[in-house]
């Protein structure tokens, strides 16, 4: 966007990260060029019949950033402020995330400029179908497989899968993931992000010699990922959750907050504040608590150069996207705080999406236990690969994760003879 | 000296009645008003000669009965404003004049022309006389003989100290004392012939019987032909057969009677009068009268309900409302019963005192409420109450205030007066006790703190307030041990709450709930009704899992075993999925998205969310409501709001019961205003396009601004908790109050939840001319001024312009720089509020702009509003 500050443009940030990584890996110019730009972008304008009979034209995007390792994978966002640069950046990050988890997939993202609050369910359905019609030549189970993202949900995925199936005149559920269970969805999707993060935490604790059964945990953000993280940390490890927060404020209890009670309180009041048996504190106080583990499950830019120095946790679990700024990363690294970076930590979601593709292709569906088992393997392996690179290069975990991910993409491009 | 013997100015009469005493009220009951002068004039002259103050109370604008005599003071009081205001005025005059003053009141009988009933006439006498007596005054009253009910005359007789008949027989004037308290002589109660200043007792039995027979045609206490319109109009109409009335309705005689009946039952507000004339037949009015307990008017709420029903049934359209509207069988407790209750239980002057002082502490009100609860009703009213309870049996009923000022044009009194549910279970005695308690609580609510301050604020002071009551059958059915309607809600023909421009404000909005409608009318904690914009019923302002939060989780019901109103969780009330047609009301939340049931089979209540999605989609409910709102708005000539209940049967047919209908109020004005669109961008502070209320506010000097982002992100709970109080102090600051004030802040003003917005009460913002609710999505704020809440209606009443501002909306302008850079002068007003400066700013607009003030122009028709800088006018 003209005049936009570079640090506010997510694609500029994404490109800077690639450059940093390319320097470490000493990539040649053609490799850099390939990685710094999306391979394909589709800008589509498509009509939607509104309830009042009029037709309205919507604009959408689909960016396939890099598909060297396999069909592209990435969500579809319905947002009034959608921009192509946001979609580009998110598509790039999907590329690294899939690669990092060693999924045979590339990275993509899509979006439609629209406000779902202004659309009736019928209009939303027609918009979803129209968008799929517009991008149908470019997607498919072997080309590009979309999934839910901001303001899209399993119902919308079901409409899209149906529309695509009509276009190709055969059932093609594998064209989309995140579908409802009765229509080829995968079990284990709901808590996949938090569960994947917990597997990486378990591995990190083992490396650091941290006894999770005695560990204390503060959780910043109490949406889907944060609340599942709280209950999983309790049930899987017996960790004590001593503080949780959401956008409205934080609560703490030294003896451990009652996770089901906080969840119920949040459901009825939309906030964790004033939950019985806890004391209200500020969000800043939560971040600076003397705990073993700090889970960041809210928004980007939570830890900055202003507050990173005051963090006392031993491990930071980044379930949110981009919760730590690069400056804060450096401070934490110097302080010896172990950060499990976002695109490793929160890759459980895309991994289960991949499992959904596999199940759709095989027409054979797993039970939840099987999903958990395979997710655990993927997450554990990825964690150790990142940890090793971090040690090998003497770099922080985030940069190490980039190195692992980019290395694989570059290797695939080279094997395919692109660079 | 109480025992001092005073003269009435006619020595012979003094002789007969042993003179007057201080504290005497003297009622002259006469067949010709001219004779009043013959007794009043000597009284006045003698009193003036004796150096007394004599006050003539003249009931304007009736022809003067009482001539003016030099030396006497004449006070005019106008009975056309109603019993309440008239009695209060008289009371005030008496209070001001003080002790031992002599009064000559105008013809009491003329009052019934304005008040319609003898009941009120007697009530006036019974509140006025004791006060006069207390002040040791002597007061003369005139009353026409044989023109009032015996009950009314008996009450007057019981109250007054002296009652004297004055009549002609064969051109001779007779004076016949009927009651002279504390005095006695052997000839006192004989008729006396009065001529040439001499009173001659009639001893001879033959003469006496001739005189008495001529004077009193109905001497015993049977129903007389009262001149009070309440009785006379009905009596005249009763002469016609029902079928004839229909044929004769257009004749001028019947038309006149109908108008008078309407005036007595519905009231005299021009708009109500017009609607009544147009939509209520004589038969309708007679039906109302047949279901009316006592006499008087039925009040605004009852009138609104009845008119709405008639409008829908009598205007043509695509919906056949006779098949849609449920029958109603309400009763009305006439407004006269309220005054009789006050007078009988010695509460009238207490209420007058409270109304005058316009304030009452909560504790005092509790004591007053106890006094109301201890009050009793006259025998004949109790008999009718028994009939009412027998009629309803054990069906739950609701006792609703229906005052004259309430729900009419101009004032709403919404939420100020009480409504009480009666589950109506138990023995007849228990049910009667609960019913009486409900009625008395509604009566007591006339002097509750909110009502008093509202009256004061609206300048209603001592204006006539006739508190009628509407007794309605509660709509619904029994389910398990509860009683509730499937659906209830409130609908507005004009929609102020538009979260997208797609929504047509002219088509209105519905707030729908499961169970009793109390939840739709009030904002209850974190529980939300379904908002249905009529133009786009499927749109909602939430997406994904937020839908579950912004939904209804509790239900209001009548618990039959508890015999009480309760708010319970829906799951606790339903227990399972057997409630009829539940698939129309519920959806499930699966993986963060809402799924509507495909079939009527709902496996369990787990993860269920009240959405009404299938109800909206599969039934004609919205289409019916659209037509209802259109027809009512068209008939009223004004936007309306209405409360309703609804039910749906197995074939998905919808039936509606209209519980209430009233002219809708929107903040600010409704007239078109030209919003300037050629303003230099630098002068615009904000521009929004989603308002409905309109108006122009110039010369805004101060802006109280709560920064949405810092409030959302940084303000700790302790700051948020007291933010409202600090704003309240600014609101009351006299310097700030010298100029129009604008307040701006995040989310919902008036919310008690500090996360939804600034926790002000109405009294914290009541001096603001413009109130702006800023909705920043990232801060999690959605300004949902909930219709029907008291806070909202208070804004409406005070003509505050309410503007929702969506800075993230591309069609909205918001000059963030101005608000960020303007110096904060908060500390100039509140030195101690330094810790609030980060979140709360007071901007002195002319100081920032070099002399320009802010001006707001809002057009309700285009929905556009702009706030811009403009050279201040003096």
Walk me through the topology.
The complex is a heterodimer of chains A (419) and B (874).
Chain A: H1 10-25, H2 29-36, E1 40-49, E2 55-66, E3 72-79, H3 84-100, E4 106-113, H4 121-135, E5 144-148, H5 154-168, H6 192-208, E6 216-220, H7 224-237, E7 240-246, E8 249-252, H8 259-269, E9 279-281, H9 283-287, E10 293-296, E11 315-318, H10 326-334, E12 338-340, H11 342-345, H12 348-362, H13 368-393, H14 397-415
Parallel strand pairs in A: 3-4, 3-5, 6-7, 6-10, 10-11, 11-12
Antiparallel strand pairs in A: 1-2, 2-4, 7-8, 8-9
Chain B: H1 11-17, E1 25-30, H2 34-49, E2 54-59, E3 73-77, H3 83-97, E4 102-107, H4 111-115, H5 118-134, E5 138-144, H6 150-159, E6 162-169, E7 172-180, E8 192-195, E9 198-201, H7 205-215, H8 229-238, H9 242-248, H10 252-265, H11 270-279, H12 282-290, E10 292-293, H13 299-314, H14 321-324, E11 331-333, H15 335-344, H16 348-357, H17 362-373, H18 379-392, E12 397-403, E13 419-422, H19 428-444, H20 449-457, E14 467-473, E15 477-479, E16 482-484, E17 487-492, E18 509-514, H21 518-521, E19 530-533, H22 546-549, E20 554-559, E21 564-569, H23 570-574, H24 582-585, E22 586-590, E23 593-595, E24 608-610, H25 613-618, H26 621-636, E25 640-648, E26 654-663, E27 684-688, E28 695-700, E29 702-706, H27 708-713, H28 717-732, E30 741-746, H29 762-765, E31 768-774, H30 790-797, E32 801-805, E33 813-814, H31 816-821, H32 826-829, E34 840-844, H33 845-849, E35 852-858, E36 865-871
Parallel strand pairs in B: 1-5, 1-6, 2-3, 2-4, 4-5, 10-11, 29-30, 30-31, 31-32
Antiparallel strand pairs in B: 6-7, 7-8, 8-9, 11-14, 12-13, 12-14, 15-16, 16-20, 17-18, 17-25, 18-19, 20-21, 22-23, 22-24, 25-26, 27-33, 27-36, 28-35, 29-34, 35-36
Helix pairs in contact in B: 3-5, 5-6, 5-15, 8-10, 10-12, 11-13, 17-19, 18-19
């Amino acid at each position: 966007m003209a005049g936009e500050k570079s640090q506010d443009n997510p694609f500029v940030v994404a490109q800077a990260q690639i450059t940093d990584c390319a320097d470490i890996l000493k990539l040649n110019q053609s490799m850099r060029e390939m990685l710094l730009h999306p391979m394909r972008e589709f800008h589509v304008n498509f009509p939607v019949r509104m309830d009042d009979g009029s037709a309205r034209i919507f604009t959408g995007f689909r960016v396939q950033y890099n598909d060297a390792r396999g069909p592209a994978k990435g969500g579809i966002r319905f947002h009034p402020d959608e921009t192509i640069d946001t979609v580009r950046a998110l598509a790039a990050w999907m590329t690294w995330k899939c690669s990092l988890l060693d999924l045979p997939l590339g990275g993509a993202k899509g979006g439609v400029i629209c406000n779902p609050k202004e659309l009736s369910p019928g209009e939303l359905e027609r918009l979803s179908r129209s968008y799929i019609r517009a991008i149908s030549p470019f997607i498919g189970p072997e080309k590009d497989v979309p999934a839910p993202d901001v303001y899209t949900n399993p119902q919308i995925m079901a409409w899209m899968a149906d529309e695509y199936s009509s276009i190709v005149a055969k059932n093609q559920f594998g064209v989309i993931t995140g579908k409802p269970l009765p229509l080829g969805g995968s079990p284990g999707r709901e808590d996949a992000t938090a569960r994947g993060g917990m597997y990486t935490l378990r591995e990190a604790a083992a490396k650091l010699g941290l006894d999770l059964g005695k560990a204390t945990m503060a959780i910043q953000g109490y949406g889907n990922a944060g609340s599942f993280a709280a209950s999983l940390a309790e049930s899987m490890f017996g960790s004590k959750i001593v503080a949780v927060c959401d956008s409205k404020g934080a609560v703490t209890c030294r003896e451990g907050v009652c996770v089901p009670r906080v969840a119920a309180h949040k459901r009825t009041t939309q906030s964790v504040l004033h939950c019985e048996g806890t004391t209200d504190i500020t969000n800043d106080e939560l971040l600076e608590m003397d705990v073993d583990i700090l889970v960041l499950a809210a928004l980007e830019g939570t830890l900055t150069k202003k507050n990173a120095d005051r963090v006392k946790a031993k491990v930071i679990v980044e379930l949110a996207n981009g919760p730590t700024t690069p400056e804060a990363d450096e401070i934490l690294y110097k302080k010896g705080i172990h950060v499990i970076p976002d695109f490793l930590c929160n890759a459980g979601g895309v991994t289960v999406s991949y499992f959904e593709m596999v199940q759709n292709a095989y027409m054979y569906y797993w039970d939840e236990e099987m999903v958990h088992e395979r997710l655990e393997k993927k997450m554990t392996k990825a964690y150790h690969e990142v940890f090793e690179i971090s040690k090998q290069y003497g770099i922080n975990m985030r940069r190490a994760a980039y190195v692992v991910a980019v290395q694989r993409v570059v290797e695939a491009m080279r094997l395919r003879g692109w660079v | 000296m109480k025992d001092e013997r005073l003269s009435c100015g006619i020595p012979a009469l003094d002789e007969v009645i042993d003179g007057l005493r201080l504290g005497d009220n003297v009622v002259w009951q006469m067949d010709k008003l001219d004779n009043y002068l013959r007794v009043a004039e000597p009284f006045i002259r003698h009193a003036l000669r004796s150096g007394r103050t004599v006050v003539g109370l003249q009931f304007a604008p009736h022809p003067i009965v009482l001539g003016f005599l030099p030396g006497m003071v004449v006070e005019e009081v106008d009975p056309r404003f109603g019993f309440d205001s008239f009695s209060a005025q008289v009371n005030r005059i008496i209070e001001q004049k003080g002790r031992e003053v002599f009064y000559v009141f105008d013809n009491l009988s003329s009052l019934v022309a304005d008040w319609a009933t003898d009941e009120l006439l007697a009530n006036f006498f019974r509140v006025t006389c004791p006060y006069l007596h207390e002040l040791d005054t002597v007061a003369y009253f005139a009353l026409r003989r044989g023109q009032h009910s015996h009950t009314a005359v008996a009450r007057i007789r019981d109250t007054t100290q002296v009652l004297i008949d004055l009549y002609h027989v064969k051109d001779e004037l007779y004076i016949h004392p009927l009651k002279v308290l504390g005095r006695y002589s052997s000839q006192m109660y004989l008729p006396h012939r009065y001529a040439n200043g001499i009173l001659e007792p009639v001893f001879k039995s033959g003469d006496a019987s001739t005189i008495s027979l001529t004077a009193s045609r109905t001497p015993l206490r049977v129903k007389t032909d009262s001149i009070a319109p309440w009785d006379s109009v009905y009596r005249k109409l009763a002469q016609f057969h029902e079928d004839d009335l229909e044929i004769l309705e257009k004749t001028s005689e019947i038309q006149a009677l109908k108008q008078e009946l309407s005036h007595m039952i519905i009231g005299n507000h021009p708009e109500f009068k017009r609607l009544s004339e147009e939509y209520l037949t004589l038969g309708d009015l007679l039906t109302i009268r047949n279901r009316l307990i006592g006499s008087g008017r039925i009040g605004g709420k009852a009138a609104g309900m009845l008119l709405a029903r008639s409008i829908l049934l009598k205007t043509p359209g695509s919906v056949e409302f006779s098949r849609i509207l449920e029958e109603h069988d309400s009763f009305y407790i006439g407004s006269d019963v309220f005054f009789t209750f006050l007078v009988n239980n010695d509460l009238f002057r207490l209420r007058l005192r409270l109304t005058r002082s316009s304030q009452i502490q909560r504790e005092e009100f509790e004591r007053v409420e106890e006094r109301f609860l201890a009050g009793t009703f006259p025998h004949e009213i109790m008999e009718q109450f028994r009939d009412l309870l027998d009629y309803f049996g054990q069906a739950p009923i609701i006792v609703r205030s229906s005052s004259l000022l309430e729900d009419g044009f101009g004032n709403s009194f919404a939420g100020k007066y009480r409504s009480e549910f009666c589950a109506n279970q138990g023995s007849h005695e228990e049910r009667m006790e609960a019913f009486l308690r409900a009625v008395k609580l509604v009566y007591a609510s006339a002097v509750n703190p909110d009502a008093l301050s509202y009256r004061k604020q609206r300048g209603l002071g001592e204006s006539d307030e006739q508190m009628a009551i509407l007794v309605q059958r509660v709509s619904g059915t029994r389910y398990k041990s509860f009683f509730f309607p499937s659906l209830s809600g409130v609908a507005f023909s004009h929609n102020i709450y538009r979260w997208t421009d797609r929504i047509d404000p002219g088509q209105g909005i519905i707030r729908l709930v499961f169970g009793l409608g109390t939840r739709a009318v009030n904002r209850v904690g974190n529980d939300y009704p379904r908002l249905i914009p009529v133009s786009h019923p499927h749109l909602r302002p939430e997406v994904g899992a937020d839908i579950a939060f912004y939904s209804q989780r509790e239900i209001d019901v009548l618990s039959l075993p508890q015999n009480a109103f309760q708010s319970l969780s829906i799951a606790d009330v339903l227990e399972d999925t057997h409630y009829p047609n539940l698939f129309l009301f519920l959806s499930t939340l699966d993986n963060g998205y809402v799924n509507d049931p495909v079939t009527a089979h709902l496996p369990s209540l787990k993860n269920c969310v009240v959405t009404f999605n299938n109800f909206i989609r599969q039934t004609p409910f919205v289409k019916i409501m659209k037509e209802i709102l259109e027809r009512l708005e068209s008939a009223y000539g004004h936007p309306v709001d209405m409360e309703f209940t609804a039910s749906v049967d197995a074939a998905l047919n919808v039936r509606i019961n209209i519980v209430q209908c009233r002219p809708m109020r929107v903040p600010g004005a409704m007239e078109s205003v030209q919003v300037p669109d050629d303003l230099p961008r630098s002068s615009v502070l904000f521009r929004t396009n989603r308002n409905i209320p309109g108006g122009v506010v110039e010369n805004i000097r101060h802006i109280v601004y709560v920064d949405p982002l810092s409030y959302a992100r940084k303000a700790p709970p302790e700051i948020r908790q007291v933010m409202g109080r600090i704003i309240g102090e600014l609101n009351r600051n006299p310097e700030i109050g010298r100029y129009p004030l604008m307040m701006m802040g995040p989310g919902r003003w008036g919310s008690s939840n500090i996360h939804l917005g600034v926790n002000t009460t109405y009294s914290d913002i009541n001096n603001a001319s413009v109130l702006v609710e800023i909705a920043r999505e990232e801060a999690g704020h959605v300004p949902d001024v909930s219709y029907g809440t008291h806070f909202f209606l208070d804004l409406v009443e005070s003509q505050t312009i309410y503007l929702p501002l969506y800075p993230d909306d591309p069609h909205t302008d918001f000059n963030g720089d101005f608000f960020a850079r303007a110096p904060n002068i908060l500390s100039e007003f509140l030195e101690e509020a330094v810790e609030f400066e980060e979140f709360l700013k007071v901007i002195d607009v002319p100081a920032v702009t070099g002399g320009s003030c802010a001006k707001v122009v809002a057009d309700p028709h285009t929905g556009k509003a702009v706030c811009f800088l403009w050279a201040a006018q003096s």
